[in-house]
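Supplementary notes for students who missed Thursday's class. We covered one full example, reproduced here. Read the sequence, then the structure, then the short commentary at the end.
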Amino acid sequence: MSKEREYFFISINLLPKDRAFPFQVHIFNPQNKNYSIYLNANSPLCEDKRQFLSYITMKGGKIAISLRQKRTFLRFSELEEENIPDLVQNHPPQKEIDRIAQIRGQYQSHENDQSSSADPMADTNFGFTPSVINDQQEKEKTPRDQLTPEEKAAIKAQDILNLKNSLCKGLSNDDFLPLIKTVQEQTTMLSLYIGPSTSLAKYLGDQLLDHDSFTNRLVALSFLLAKQNGLDDDEELGDLIIAAFISHLGTSQINSDIDYFPHNLISYEMTKELRKHSLFSIHLAKKAGLQISPNCASIIEEHHERIDGTGYPHMKKDEFVNPLSQVLGLCAHVLEFSGGKINGERYTLKQTITLIRDLAMIPGLENNFPPALVQVLYGIIVYKPKTEMQKEVA
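Structure (token representation):
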């Protein structure tokens, strides 16, 4: 990626006085074309530093923000991309434009079977059909950030519907492959130009989501739960996908005997060792040279934290726990408990999520997840397509 594509310029008016910013502020020197960090994240912009920035811009220098922190900057500033002139002028590469064209073409294939597979809740929640995004006569190819709200809603509704139908298709046979393949298809739509998270998630999805395994089940179910729960930010989805892939990588560094016993039956010493696996996972990822974001590392590290403070490794609680780690943690526990890894008994996914929702007191069953998130996953697992419901009534 060239330097011109790594940063965007802002005016000093967008940096409030005496505030700590969750992003780094860089300075661009037009003489040597170099960028240098001027203010680290979470450092206040005092009056002296602000005056020096004014002096630099007066002499021809520019204030720059890394494109990797674009979303953080926009959220902090409560702005949209169209409010930043340099972002409006920063047109995407042809590959990105082609990717969006592929998104539109993909949904065209689903139009013919909408009457048989439509989710009754999809119309209630969104009110759009895929035809909204397929009118090539009226709209040219545009980058994802320039899609209309109607197009984004239609894409989101169809994505979720395809995922839920795929899970329902294989759930009765304990076959996750239809869902895994659907998630693989949707990860190919992630942009390569947002940052390392999306490009790595796109690569891992393409290379690994081709068979049924515990890890791929965890990736697929976490992806579906996050989407159904309202997450549609590609960068955060990328973080979640990577975290799901490598969250249990650290188990390779602990006593292999643990795998031969239900977790409720292992010794205290083995339990202490097992609880280190999330930290080992982050260590291995970094040692392998993977560029994981701080958010991704947080999801991995905290996926065993619980909202009541009884989790590990740091016993965090409530709002101090990364919300996406709760998504990953809930999906991991449902899969592990239903598969007999916790207490040695196997359950169906529906039985497991029902027990969690009803706060059942069963050894090894954790029910200290956000109730709203549990209810969303319950709705996903018990979901049946409209045609299936009609068959049952008949």
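Commentary. The radius of gyration is 23 Å. The CA atoms of residues 215 and 370 lie 23 Å apart. If anything here is unclear, bring it to office hours.
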